[in-house]
């Protein structure tokens, strides 16, 4: 073999890159292929990346499904109709009447308002109401049937009511307009928010006791439950005491 052939034999493998895997022999006959290891490593990495991508896609899909379900549940809950809460306001209520007459119930927005928002003449006698209040709690229910001509009007505009006091029927209640005498009485009481007493008649007649006007004036909580129910609850100045008087306006179906 010439020198040129010997140089070509040893130099060409160094210059030309090997495409086949290189087999390395170890003592004891063990061999390993570096090319095959590199190929398996890259393939394994690519497979791992594909698995991670598929796992991430599955996790993202699951999170999106959960988020969509939660959003649907939220909107379904929002669609549920929430019952309307009753409105509550503070008003001035005055119960008054002559000693030998009937009881009146007057409601004002404030103590300076001469024109009442509700004025009712009750069929219960003044002396009887005093006895009822002396025995404990008083619940007055005024009911009116749902007649076609009264169905669309405001509850406080109903002209005639059936009256019940602590479960017993006691005649009727009639809606009135304030006359000059009532306005003068309210004018005399405008400096008072809470109190009770007797107003002299001022007529100078011999039977002045019968003409005296007994009154009880206090703050009331006005509760509007619906278009068919309203109530007025006396607020006792003593916080530890229960409500002594409540008046209910109810429009019944029968």
Automatic annotation (TrEMBL):
Which residues does the annotated region (Disordered) include?
Answer: 22-41
Q: Polar residues compositional bias: what residue ranges? A: 22-36
Highest rank taxon of the organism: Eukaryota
Q: What is this protein called?
A: Protein MIZU-KUSSEI 1
């Amino acid at each position: 073999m010439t020198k040129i052939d010997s140089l070509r034999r040893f130099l060409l493998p160094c210059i030309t890159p090997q495409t086949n895997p290189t087999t390395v022999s170890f003592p004891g006959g063990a061999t390993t292929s570096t090319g095959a290891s590199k190929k398996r490593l890259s393939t394994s990495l690519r497979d791992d990346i594909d698995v991670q991508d598929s796992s991430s896609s599955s996790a993202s899909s699951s999170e999106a499904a959960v988020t969509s379900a939660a959003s649907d549940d939220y909107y379904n809950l929002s669609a549920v109709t929430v019952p309307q809460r009753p409105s509550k306001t503070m008003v001035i209520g005055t119960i008054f009447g002559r000693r030998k007459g009937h009881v009146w119930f007057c409601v004002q927005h404030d103590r300076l308002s001469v024109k009442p928002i509700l004025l009712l003449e009750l069929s219960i006698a003044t002396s009887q109401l005093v006895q009822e209040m002396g025995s404990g709690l008083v619940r007055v229910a005024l009911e009116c049937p749902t007649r076609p001509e009264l169905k669309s009007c405001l509850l406080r505009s109903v002209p005639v009511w059936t009256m019940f006091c602590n479960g017993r029927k006691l005649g009727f209640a009639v809606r009135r307009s304030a006359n000059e005498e009532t306005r003068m009485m309210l004018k005399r009481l405008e400096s008072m928010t809470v109190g009770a007493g007797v107003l002299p008649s001022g007529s100078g007649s011999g039977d002045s006791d019968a003409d005296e006007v007994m009154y009880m004036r206090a703050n009331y909580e006005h509760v509007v439950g619906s278009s068919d129910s309203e109530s007025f609850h006396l607020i006792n100045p003593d916080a530890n005491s229960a409500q002594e008087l409540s008046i209910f306006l109810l429009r019944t179906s029968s």
